[in-house]
Amino acid sequence: MKSNLFTAIFLIFGFLSLYSQDDMLSLLGDDKTTDYANASFKTNRVINLHSLENTSAGVLDFKISHRFGTLNGGFYELFGLDNSSIRLGFEYGLSDLITVGVGRSSFEKAYDGFIKYKFLRQSTGERNMPITAALLLTSSAQTLKWANPDRDNYFSSRLYYTTQLILGRKFSESFTFQLSPTMVHRNLVKTNTEKNDVYALGAGGRIKLSKRVALNAEYIYLLPDQVAGDINNSLSVGFDIETGGHVFQLHCSNSTSMIEKGFIAETANSWTDGGIHFGFNISRVFTVKRKKTE
């Protein structure tokens, strides 16, 4: 089943790549009769998942992300507010189509980096394309102290990689939907029953409630028999609030980690028993290099 699913995905990727050449050619000259969709989401994240959007060329996006403890910690832990993890990230638009980023999380003391290439853009007019498509490649390393320092430990055991295809469409000014077929590779797993390669399908959407507020939701389905029995699918719901140069994302999620290998393949909490984290992302953009104009 996994093989068939991802064979289909890569066939789709190859088919769509034929059209991406036209999309790139539009950068070489005037294409004033083509109208490209924009602002599908308020930032380049749905909540945890990368969204259809990229950071604009020459723009630096500084992200501060927090996840508090779970609500089922009760009043003693102030429903999770006594505990928190944080990720700091910097993301830069090399062009309107290519974004790179790095980050550091307190959870598992993890470092991560990514490159995201938008090879198709939804458009109407002279050049018609019904969807936006992007390829996301990430890597990360957790740097916790070794559980057993006396045995042979290898740095490669700390490494994780993610390949993700993002396909979506802005159906109207109020509604956007995307799918994110994903493979997470873990160099080291805890037991023989777990797979090094984990396949998943993410789905995310946005409903615009007002000019500055939107409702976002995402769900990540793990294909069966790949991870430990106590791992759950990730579900997150929240609001985006735009205020000038900032975007505040307030949300609830059963995922603790804020990087792909964690929230896709290692979500241990469940909504049904109150294993819900309140959290937020703050995005602040800075124009580092202005676009040239005629």
Q: Looking across the biggest beta sheet, what order are the strands in?
A: 2-3-4-5-7-8-9-10-11-12-13-14
Q: What structural class do you assign from the helix and strand content?
A: mainly beta
CATH class: Mainly Beta
Distance between the termini: 53 Å
- Specify the CATH architecture: Beta Barrel
CATH topology term: Porin
What is the number of helical segments per DSSP (H or I, 4+ residues)?
2
What is the CATH H-level superfamily?
monomeric porin ompg
Q: Quick one: overall form? A: globular
**Relative strand content:** over 45%
Cα-atom radius of gyration: 20 Å
What does this structure look like?
By secondary structure, this protein is mainly β. It has helices at residues 2-25, 260-265; strands at residues 34-36, 59-70, 84-93, 98-105, 110-120, 123-125, 132-142, 159-170, 175-186, 197-208, 213-222, 234-243, 246-253, 277-287. The strands form 2 sheets. It has a 12-stranded antiparallel β-barrel. The longest helix has 24 residues, at 2-25. The radius of gyration is 20 Å and the shape is globular. The N and C termini lie far apart (53 Å).
